[in-house]
Amino acid sequence: MNAIERPASSEFAAYYAPYIARCEGDDLIAALTMTSERFESMTASLPDTMGDHRYAEGKWSIKEVLQHLIDCERVFAYRALRFARNDATELHGFDEDAYAPASEADRRTLADLRMEHAAVRSASIALFKSFSAAMLLRSGSANGNRFTVRALGWAIAGHELHHLDVINQRYLAHG
């Protein structure tokens, strides 16, 4: 299989540019693998009690941030599947701030969240590997934004890097 190259800036909304720019290299599968390893490494070193830590009043706990990453990856992979299959239906967005408390992530263990993340990431990698070169360039619209299939994959990786950096800088540096 050939590398799934970075998308052109015309393949995604400008809002996602900083996320995609965080990714290293020019191969999506390598980027997804690297971010998954970073997720595993960071969360495996945390005591479970740290998972409930919030760096400020009203902010998500570490567990809620991790669940947010899992939820977003599922949503973005679903969008990629729909677009790869030439589904022209405009897909709705979702309210991440409503999802966080509804997920009840704080009742879970960090080990449980790691396991779910690994399963979701494995499925995402298999999904993106299954797409042909033509499918990767197909596009659709979600939440009023146009994306190619491959841009959604790169957004998954970059979004995760962003939040892992937030955990390091805001939760762990002061926690």
Task: Walk me through the structure.
The protein has 175 residues and is mainly α. The chain has a single domain, classed as Up-down Bundle (Four Helix Bundle (Hemerythrin (Met), subunit A)). It has a two-stranded antiparallel sheet. Helix 2 packs parallel to helix 7 and helix 3 crosses helix 4. The N and C termini lie far apart (43 Å).
Characteristic key phrases:
single chain, 175 residues, mainly alpha, Four Helix Bundle (Hemerythrin (Met), subunit A), two-stranded antiparallel ribbon, 5% strand
Outline:
The chain is mainly alpha-helical and 175 residues long. Helix content is 59%, strand content 5%. The chain has a single domain, classed as dinb family like domain (Four Helix Bundle (Hemerythrin (Met), subunit A)), CATH 1.20.120.450.
What's the gyration radius in Å? 16 Å
Question: Reading side by side through the largest sheet, how are the strands ordered?
Answer: 1-2
Cα end-to-end separation = 43 Å
Structural domain tally: 1
Percent range for β-strand residues? under 5%
